[in-house]
From TrEMBL:
This is Ferrous iron transport protein B. It is found in: Cell inner membrane. It comes from Succinatimonas hippei (strain DSM 22608 / JCM 16073 / KCTC 15190 / YIT 12066). GTP 1 binds at residues 10-17, 54-57, 114-117. GTP 2 binds at residues 35-39. GO terms for cellular component: plasma membrane. Mg(2+) 1 binds at residue 22. Belongs to the TRAFAC class TrmE-Era-EngA-EngB-Septin-like GTPase superfamily. FeoB GTPase (TC 9.A.8) family. Mg(2+) 2 binds at residues 21, 24-25. GO terms for molecular function: ferrous iron transmembrane transporter activity; GTP binding; metal ion binding.
Amino acid sequence: MACQKIALIGNQNSGKTTLFNALTGANQYVGNWPGVTVDKVVGTLKSTDTKVVDLPGLYSLSPYSPEEIVSREYLLSGDYDLIVNVVDAAHLERSLSLTAELLSFNKNIIVALNMMDVAKNNHIEINVNVLEQKLGIKVIPMSASTGDGVQDLVNALNNVPQRQKATIYPQEIKEAVVKIGSYLKDKNDFEKEFISLCLLQNDKVYVHEYMTDELLQVELVKIRAVLEKQYGQDMESKLAGLRYAFVDEAVKASVVKAAANRSKNF
Ligand code: GDP
Ligand code: K
Ligand code: MG
């Protein structure tokens, strides 16, 4: 599948704007501190018609700051056909926690595994094939600031493989998500799983939106009660724990040498 519009999504300082500039030839301001990019910026991938959208950084999809809300709203607009999730290879675990949330959108997604130069200097080796298998999506190692791997990413955009469904949530939660999703008739298919998970964990935004849907409210109370009894935990903690376990496993399996040997000749 070739892409028409690509959304760059990732943590603050993962290198999204640097990558955006490399892809589009733009000259957007880059800075090694959060809050440099505060609104979405649209450019065009060099010598193509493909649009690239740079967005403010976010750490989770339950955002608080206005910039994070810009990115969440954009994700929910659905106005893109590929998410390029810019991941900081030097802070893999932290970065992948957002990836685990992004996987609940039924959209194509690939990982731009950025900052490979920093990871290498920190003696972090990542087995990209294993990481791809664990996440179920394509992973392209690169360094946006040196340009290494940027062309690999461009090539990958022309032929994005169908993603494999990641196994983050057990069967009973998948069933709950489908059940809740059947009430969301006004929502698009790509966002139903995400919104159902939000409702399951009492996300204020959606609980408020569906406050007047009494049938759904009754169903939610029932579903939550059954699951929370089974788990002995509230759903917000349970879902966060499942995502954490998923990321932990992906990192443990793919980071082959994390020990930074202290230099002997200092
Ligand atoms: P954003 O917040 O995700 O948009 O990140 P920026 O593009 O503003 O980059 C944050 C900082 O990381 C800047 O100082 C960039 O020069 C630097 N940076 C971006 N990509 C790389 C990379 O691959 N390697 C290294 N060493 N630095 C990078
Ligand atoms: K930045
Ligand atoms: Mg930026």
